[in-house]
């Protein structure tokens, strides 16, 4: 019987990361649940849901702004389960700032988490990943497809993720490691429900009416796509960016 696969997931205390850990549990994939001390969401709830789904996981605190922290996070998979098969760079922050209010510090802080944090995660995994492994990074339609006023730093980081995964896919292909990205559309997560830095509940509900599918997406719907991209079913897919948006980006505007 094959050895169970092992995944590291940053930003797994809530939202898409939490949904992915639970989805993986149903597939028999063990997860290292990455959480950040400044995140108000409880990673132990993710662990409880994984265990309720019959899965196995451990919680590990990680700060994607720190190379040492990310390296230790990836190594935890090897120390705990003896292997690393999947790496999902999902941690991210969202802050509202107009261009004229965009200080160097705001710009740098955003890119340090949402872009360089992805680099650190993929780099740490590459040193430890078994052949036939797979990596996925979370981008966004903001930057990945559209511009978004008040969020130039966020959009720049998410656009940068797409260039990063293409280049890393080329580099790691000879090692038998695939690298892809998901581009979520409007997904109901704690981040998008933030009325200060994002759309908030009312704005999200209103925006959902303009989506061909008739509503915003759920974290589980993005998680299932990530799971597909890391699975053997996507064994010849690498360097790609898959949009998960209910048809929002292909709808012609009047």
UniProtKB/TrEMBL annotation:
It comes from the Bacteria. GO terms for molecular function: oxidoreductase activity, acting on the CH-OH group of donors, NAD or NADP as acceptor. Keywords: Oxidoreductase. Residues 5-186 form the Ketoreductase domain. SMART domains: PKS_KR. The keyword Oxidoreductase applies. Belongs to the short-chain dehydrogenases/reductases (SDR) family. This is 3-oxoacyl-[acyl-carrier protein] reductase.
């Amino acid at each position: 019987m094959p050895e169970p696969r092992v995944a590291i997931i940053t930003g797994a205390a809530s939202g898409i990361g939490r949904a992915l850990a639970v989805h993986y549990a149903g597939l028999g994939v063990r997860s290292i649940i990455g959480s950040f001390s400044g995140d108000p969401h409880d990673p132990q709830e993710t662990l409880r849901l994984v265990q309720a789904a019959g899965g196995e996981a451990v919680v590990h605190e990680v700060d994607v702004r720190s190379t040492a922290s990310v390296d230790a996070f990836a190594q935890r998979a090897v120390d705990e389960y003896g292997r690393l098969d999947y790496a999902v760079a999902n941690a991210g922050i969202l802050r509202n700032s107009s261009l004229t209010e965009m200080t160097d510090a705001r710009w740098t802080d955003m890119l340090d988490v949402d872009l360089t944090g992805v680099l650190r995660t993929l780099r740490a995994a590459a040193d430890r990943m078994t052949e036939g492994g797979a990596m996925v990074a979370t981008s966004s339609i903001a930057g990945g497809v559209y511009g978004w006023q008040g969020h130039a730093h966020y959009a720049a980081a998410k656009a940068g993720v797409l260039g990063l995964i293409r280049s890393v896919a080329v580099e790691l292909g000879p090692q038998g490691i695939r690298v892809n990205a998901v581009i979520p559309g409007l997904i109901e997560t704690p981040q998008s429900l933030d009325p200060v830095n994002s759309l908030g509940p009312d704005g999200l509900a209103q925006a959902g009416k303009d989506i061909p599918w008739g509503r915003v997406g759920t974290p589980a719907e993005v998680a299932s796509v990530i799971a597909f991209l890391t699975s053997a079913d996507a064994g010849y897919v690498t360097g790609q960016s898959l949009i998960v948006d209910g048809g929002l980006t292909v709808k012609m505007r009047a």
